Amino acid sequence: MIKRLGPLLILLACGEGTGHGGSPTFVFMSKSSDTVPNEFDVYVMNSDGTHVVNLTQHVAINHEPAWSSDGSKIIFSSAGRDTTGRWHLYVMNVDGSQLSRLTFTSRSEMQPAWSPDGGKIALISNNDLYVMNADGSAITPLVAGSGIEADPSWSPDGRIVFFSTRAASSRISGHLFVISADGTGLTSLGDSTTEDGSPAWSPDGTKIAFSSRRETTHSQVWIMNPDGSAPLRLTNDSTGAGGPSWSHDGTKIVFTSNRDGNVEIYEMNADGSNQTRLTYRPTWIDIRPRWRP
Q: Most CB atoms closer than 10 Å: which of 21, 69, 71, 253?
């Protein structure tokens, strides 16, 4: 299925070095399957799955990394770096240097997403959707008090697609909504039965990739038009697949799957063809890959 020296990749990955060849293509969350649940670190790797590098080095708990719009920075959420126990947003260079904290509220901030123009960051704060300036200032609620919001993703023209339980039958199921960055134009892209999540807007704005259980017990990767029409399932994994992210040119999608007996990262063409495994880390859990802009 894939032509690569698997043992060499595993050796590189387990070494957790501080340097890497070339410029990394993906950022993702990873943890050893033997460690405490949720104690993830932020990693980067090259487009072929080689040179896997731990950027956060087991300091605190580090989740949900995302690229800046120009690919020069990585933003992520972290807990345990202060005495409050809350989650806050941090930003660093692609090599892990010049780490700085962006949020200082009394809430917990998670799941950041940088706007295409680089000026704004969407985020989840205490389960509500917020937006702030890229320097952490002017943090403002967009959707609050009507359920649980998660996983914001920006369109090229500045709208935000996100998961919400606001119209769901329970607080653990929900579907996708779109809203403008000024808080207007809230629109549903599904109904209370679709159980859609993890949306990712394509770079050209014509499609949204997402995870859904519409036709299967386990979540699969789908794409649809921005108005929710023409949904198309791309994966058919017996154990589930999800967390999609688009390549900068919109021709490929990276995602997570357990199809080979371990949670690994895969890529495929935007039509679902040529599904290829990128990581080979049998004692690690690799999730939430994000393609560099």
A: 253
Tell me the residue length of the chain: 293
Lowest mean pLDDT among 21-30, 54-63, 93-102, 283-292: 21-30
- pLDDT for 168 equals 59
- Each residue of 67-93: pLDDT tens digit? 999 999 999 999 999 888 899 999 999
Residue 87 resides in a domain: yes
Select the more confidently predicted residue: 20 or 193.
Answer: 193
Q: Which residues of 115-126 are buried (b: 16+ CB within 10 A; e: fewer)?
A: bbeeebbbbbbb
Q: Does a structural domain hold residue 281? A: yes
Res 192: pLDDT = 67
* Residue carrying structure tokens 């799955």: 49
Of 68, 33, 77, the C-alpha closest to 258 is: 33
Burial class (CB in 10 A: 0-12, 13-18, 19+), 209: buried
The sheet with strand 73-79 has its strands ordered as 61-67, 73-79, 87-93, 100-101
| 217 within a domain of the structure (yes/no) | yes
Whole-structure pTM value: 0.89
Rounded to whole angstroms, how far apart are CA atoms 124 and 102? 14
Q: Alpha-carbon distance 176 to 184, whole Å?
A: 16
Opening angle at CA 52, ends 47 and 57, nearest 5: 140
Write the CATH number for 96: 2.120.10.30
pLDDT, one tens digit per residue, over 143-188 is 887 789 999 999 999 999 999 988 655 455 788 999 999 999 999 9
The beta-carbon contacts of 57-62 under 8 Å, at least 24 apart in sequence, are: 57/16, 57/96, 62/29
Does residue 1 lie in a domain region?
Answer: no
Contact between 246 and 291 (Cβ < 8 Å): yes
For residue 214, what is the enclosing H or E element? none
Number of domains in the chain: 1
Q: Structural domain of residue 263, as residue ranges?
A: 6-291
